Amino acid sequence: MYWIQELLPRPLSLSIYAADAEGTSFALQELSSRTRVRELQGQIAAITGIAPDCQRILVGYPPECLDLSNGDAMLGDLPIQSGDMLIVEEDQTRPHTSPSFTRHGAPGYIREPLPVLTRTVVPADNSCLFTSVYYVVEGGVLNPACAPEMRRLIARIVASDPDFYSEAILGKTNQEYCEWIKRYSY
């Protein structure tokens, strides 16, 4: 007879689907087969605002309710696999015994939003900086035709303050710089 013991925790990539009016889904972070049920419930509470003692978590097809009675049980002992979508419902029959929870914020379970980095390809020409600035300022509108407008705007701003935008700053006279920046090719 052989006993196989899991030496390293198996990472789990899980998503939750909040069965509410919005019907939104969220990815859960930093879970493994050794994560405790109570930790999972804490993450879910922070995202959904549903207190751990009022959560019903369903998995599989057809969806079956997970046994959440032992908060110290490990996720590896439950019938969930990496990639599963967990359905979270609020059990209205259970009394609220913990502090009130609000969506996306719960006492002791507050999570900072994760930053998002998006890469957008812009044309690799002499106007890529102008196109990129326009993209950021306009909230994600990619318009390569904006470059001449942006060049004229820069020229007007520079020309409006020749004392600040001097030859020492620009590397050429204010007027030369304004003419130069408006040209598409150098």
UniProtKB/TrEMBL annotation:
E.C. code: 3.4.19.12
Gene Ontology biological process: endoplasmic reticulum unfolded protein response; ERAD pathway; protein deubiquitination
Catalytic activity: Thiol-dependent hydrolysis of ester, thioester, amide, peptide and isopeptide bonds formed by the C-terminal Gly of ubiquitin (a 76-residue protein attached to proteins as an intracellular targeting signal)
Location relative to the cell: Cytoplasm
Any one annotated GO CC term: cytosol
Source species: Molossus molossus (Pallas' mastiff bat)
Cited function: Hydrolase that can remove conjugated ubiquitin from proteins and participates in endoplasmic reticulum-associated degradation (ERAD) for misfolded lumenal proteins. May act by triming the ubiquitin chain on the associated substrate to facilitate their threading through the VCP/p97 pore. Cleaves both polyubiquitin and di-ubiquitin.
InterPro entries membership: OTU1_Ubl, Ubiquitin-like_domsf
Protein known as: Ubiquitin thioesterase OTU
Keyword tags: Cytoplasm, Hydrolase, Metal-binding, Protease, Thiol protease, Ubl conjugation pathway, Zinc, Zinc-finger
GO molecular function: cysteine-type deubiquitinase activity; zinc ion binding
